[in-house]
């Protein structure tokens, strides 16, 4: 899946391309039933940048993403989209600007790849606006960007996990949102396709100014691709900023309970986390021998 995107400077009708839209959490607390998972988070998502949210399992990173997407009702605080509380906006208006790829999306039984990707155009439909040539072009472009053009007639349930993940990303691309929220978008993908997906998201950000916010488990990929890194610990933001300013041994130890060395990535120069572990301490006795 190799993609080079040309910068978009105008819409098909010649009008200026829409600008970036701000997204922010204000004192946001989120939870399930009587259990609060995210506590009083204040977060300004850098518009037009790539943000990665990282942290140990159960730290609240996916919950925070769902809160930003208006999927979860806040326990306290609120989310602002373009400076407006999202609770005051119509769901259709939010969906036209903000797209969400959840961690385990479900496709209707029997639906084909082309039909599922086409559903990404629903936020742009209305009572008096029917399917148009622009909608078809958006779907074709999304299928091409994700290298799915040979699978358009296949049923989604027949595909491998990695292929299905690319279909969901294509549906979001067809939606053409200004902000993309993705919960572990590299799930089920081998390392080559992980890099392809992250390269694609980076290209979308660079060429179109699309704001990307993604939850990632792989720290080194997060540090390589993100402009802004949000490290969460026990439902709160521990640190945030440029990866080189955020990731150090103390941060990794506090957030993940992991002893590690931070060295420059030999390809990009971004911080790379090298776990020590019991077998990484050469010259020291193993705990088993003590």
Report the span from N to C terminus.
Answer: 50 Å
For the sheet with most strands, the description reads: 6 strands, mixed
Strand order of the largest sheet: 6-7-8-3-9-10
Question: Mean pLDDT across all residues, rounded?
Answer: 85
What's the number of helices? 9
Give the low-confidence spans.
1-18, 285-290
What is the overall shape? Answer: globular
Return the string of H and E elements: EEEHEEHEHHHEHEHEEHHEE
In which range does the helix fraction lie? 25-40%
What's the count of strands? 12
> Approximately how much beta-strand content do the residues carry?
15-25%
What structural class should be given to the helix and strand makeup? alpha/beta
Question: Brief description of this entry?
Answer:
This protein is an alpha/beta fold and 290 residues long. The protein is 30% helix and 24% strand.
Structure in words:
This protein is an alpha/beta fold and 290 residues long. The protein is built from 9 helices and 12 strands. The strands form 3 sheets. A 6-stranded mixed β-sheet has the order 6-7-8-3-9-10, with helices on both faces. Strands 2-1-4-5 form a 4-stranded antiparallel β-sheet, with helices on one face. A two-stranded antiparallel sheet has the order 11-12.
């Amino acid at each position: 899946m190799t993609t080079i995107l040309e910068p978009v400077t105008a819409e098909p009708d010649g009008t200026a391309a829409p600008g970036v839209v701000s997204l922010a959490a204000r004192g946001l607390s989120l939870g399930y039933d009587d259990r609060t998972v995210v506590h009083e988070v204040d977060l300004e998502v850098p518009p037009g940048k790539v943000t990665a949210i990282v942290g140990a399992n159960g730290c609240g990173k996916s919950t925070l993403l769902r809160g930003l997407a208006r999927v979860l009702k806040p326990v306290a605080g609120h989310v602002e989209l373009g400076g407006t509380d999202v609770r005051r906006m119509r769901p259709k208006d939010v969906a036209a600007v903000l797209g969400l790829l959840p961690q385990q999306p479900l496709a209707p039984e029997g639906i084909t790849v082309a039909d599922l990707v086409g559903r990404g155009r629903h936020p742009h439909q209305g009572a008096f606006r029917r399917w148009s040539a622009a909608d078809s072009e958006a779907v074709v472009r999304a299928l091409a960007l994700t290298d799915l053009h040979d699978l358009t007639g296949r049923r989604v349930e027949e595909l491998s996990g990695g292929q299905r993940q690319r279909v969901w990303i294509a549906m979001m691309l067809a939606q053409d949102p200004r902000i993309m929220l993705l919960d572990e978008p590299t799930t089920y993908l081998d390392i080559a396709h992980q890099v392809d997906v992250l390269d694609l998201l980076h290209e979308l950000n660079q060429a179109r100014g699309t704001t990307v916010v993604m939850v990632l488990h792989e720290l080194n990929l997060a540090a390589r691709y993100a402009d802004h890194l949000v490290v969460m610990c026990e439902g709160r933001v521990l640190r945030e900023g440029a990866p080189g300013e955020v990731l150090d041994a103390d941060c990794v130890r506090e957030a993940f309970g992991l002893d590690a060395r931070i060295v420059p990535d030999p390809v990009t120069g971004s911080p790379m986390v090298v776990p020590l572990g019991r077998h990484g301490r050469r010259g020291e006795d193993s705990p088993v021998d003590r």
